[in-house]
Design brief:
Order of helices and strands: HEHEHEHEHEHEHHEEEHHHH
Largest sheet: 7 strands, mixed
Number of strands: 9
Shape: elongated
CATH topology of the largest domain: Rossmann fold
Strand order of the largest sheet: 4-3-2-5-6-9-7
CATH class of the largest domain: Alpha Beta
CATH superfamily of the largest domain: Vaccinia Virus protein VP39
CATH architecture of the largest domain: 3-Layer(aba) Sandwich
Helix content: 25-40%
């Protein structure tokens, strides 16, 4: 079956194991070879790299990663798919299959003594934000994340001031996101109802806002976005349960015009505002 297409192989494996794509797990299998190459190229893999792949499915992307990286740790939640993967890669010293929920795993626990790694994933849409946050907030952070995500989510994450959101701030605090390529629904089986995109996040060695209290920082950011499209005094007062009159002087002290809205602030401005609020207690 050397000339078998990825689509034909995917359908054959699913049928032979009597497996149906589970909507509840967001299973849409990638069947386009060109997109596989684009994902691997975005990750800039070398034989020195260790990759954690989330949701490997039937292992099509896993094979591409293993051909270029030194080691691939494939974490699959679905028991049936994990069994297929373990059989398929049983003769490989490059691929380790773990049948677990990635959100319940500390990356450091599966890396052994390896400290540097990359994350590559064709993510189910419903866990995209949770997986990104899981890795970016982990004690052992990846150097790079290359993710297949819903196109609209990729656009939100890469937004610039003027169109920022809580999601874009929460990612851009930790790394630089880039929308690498848009991917049509026809590149998957079964085809999802929306288009996707390859998102790359180059993770910073440390958050770009120098703060020892990430929770406090996001308390301020979350409050700022609590009232959609409202000016900052209104949204912060609403989110923090403080009088609007107390908010305006703090914004002015941070050098932020009270007429501005949360979506216009840069990450650095959020950091300045956090420090002003922290100083005031």
């Amino acid at each position: 079956m050397q000339n078998e297409s990825i689509a034909a192989r995917t359908k054959r494996l699913l049928a032979s194991h009597d497996i149906h794509a589970k909507k509840g797990l967001g299973q849409n299998f990638l069947i386009d070879g060109n997109i596989l190459k684009k994902i691997a190229a975005a990750a800039e893999l070398t034989p020195a790299d260790t990759v954690i792949e989330v949701g490997p499915g039937l292992g099509v992307l896993t094979e591409t990663l293993a051909a270029q990286a030194g080691k691939v740790i494939a974490v699959e939640l679905d028991n049936n798919l994990a069994a297929i993967l373990k059989t398929h890669f049983s003769g490989s010293d490059k691929v380790t299959v773990i049948n677990e929920d990635i959100l319940k795993i500390n990356p450091a626990d599966i890396l052994a003594r390896q400290t540097e790694y990359k994350v590559v994933a064709n993510l189910p849409y419903y866990i995209t934000s949770a997986v990104i946050r899981h890795f970016l907030e982990a004690p052992a952070k990846p150097a790079v994340m290359v993710l297949m995500v819903q196109k609209e989510v990729a656009q939100q994450i890469t937004a610039r001031p003027g169109e920022m959101s809580l999601l874009s701030v929460s990612v851009q605090l930790y790394g630089k996101p880039t929308l690498m390529s848009k991917v049509g629904a026809g590149c998957f089986y079964p085809a999802p109802n929306v288009d996707s995109a390859i998102l790359k996040i180059d993770v910073y060695p440390k958050p770009i806002v120098a703060t020892v209290d990430i929770t406090g920082f996001f308390d301020i950011v979350r409050a700022g976005f609590s009232a959609n499209r409202k000016q900052l005094p209104n949204s912060l007062a609403n989110g923090l349960k403080l009088p609007k009159a107390d908010i305006i002087p703090l914004l002015e002290q941070a050098g932020i015009d009270p007429k501005r809205r949360a979506e216009t602030l840069t990450i650095e401005e959020w950091g300045t505002l956090y420090r002003v609020f922290k100083k005031k207690g």
